[in-house]
Design a protein that fits this description.
Helix content: 40-55%
Mean pLDDT: 89
Order of helices and strands: HHEEEEEHHEEHHEEHEEHHH
């Protein structure tokens, strides 16, 4: 449930134009990624990479579909390393994306369960079996396609979209599944299906000139935020502003994300 924190360490650095003013966020992100590497495990017999969970001193061989944002985050952050480290993190991103795609491919409906467990000698088993139209896997496919140009990620995204069409499409919209093994539907379309899942699927097949990643960064709810220019940096830091200008600035109100209840 702390996914947005790690994502934002990286994205604040990107949104700040990767300058010295925001370098501390990049350093914190790199430190947290050392922790992430300590959680990576691989299954037997197929050697699927996954991120285990750590509770106190115990490790749990379970990975949520929510954690499938990580391949995209790792791919996005890999360019900030030197060549060797960059390739290591990009390779891990691709491995994890393959695992997340197989979360979908391993069920009769070709839709992923909420989480998966990894038992000795078994590659992956559905833990919690519902699907509520989450975006994390297609989000990562979008980043990997944009950053590598590998059309395989478009093919995987198309297969996932077709599974949504087959199993979740109804006359009035889309619904989740109570069980990805049986295909029994629920009666709810989460708002993030429109705001994130379908948006990332759309962008997966759009030219890179549509919301280019060298000019925009997406927040955790898939809203694009412009990367600041040199002049914007001076204004945002208060440099050159009069005292009256700074006093007149009012911080915009934020909204409660409700992350724990619906994401």
């Amino acid at each position: 449930m702390g996914d947005s924190f790690y994502e934002y360490l990286l994205k604040v650095w990107i949104q700040g134009n990767r300058t010295a003013a925001v370098d501390s966020y990049r350093k914190m992100w790199e430190t947290s990624m050392k922790g992430l590497l300590s959680l990576v495990r691989r299954t037997s017999p197929s050697s699927f990479a996954y991120i285990s969970e750590k509770v106190g001193d115990s490790f749990i061989d379970k990975m949520d579909e929510l954690a499938c944002f990580a391949p995209g985050m790792l791919a996005l952050g890999s360019s900030g390393y030197g060549p060797d480290e960059s390739q290591k993190f990009l390779s891990l991103a691709e491995e994890l994306a393959w695992t997340c795609y197989n979360f979908y491919q391993s069920t009769p409906t070709k839709l992923a369960g909420e989480n998966y467990v990894f038992n000795n000698g078994q590659d992956m088993t559905v833990g919690t079996s519902w699907n509520i139209l989450r975006p994390e896997t297609v989000e990562s496919l979008f980043y990997l396609w944009r950053l590598t140009g590998n059309k395989t990620y478009q093919e995987w995204g198309w297969n996932i979209f077709q599974a949504f069409e087959k199993n979740s499409r109804i006359e009035s919209g889309y619904v989740g599944l109570k069980d990805v093994n049986t295909g029994v539907q629920d009666n709810m379309m989460q708002s993030f299906f429109l705001a994130e899942t379908l948006k990332y699927l759309y962008l997966l097949y759009s030219p890179p000139s549509v919301i280019p990643l060298d000019k925009w960064v997406f927040n955790t709810e898939a809203h694009p935020i412009k990367i600041v220019s040199r002049n914007d940096r001076a204004m945002s830091s208060g440099a050159g502003n009069s005292v009256e200008q700074q006093k007149s600035y009012k911080r915009p109100l934020t909204r409660r994300e409700g992350r724990f209840s619906n994401k």
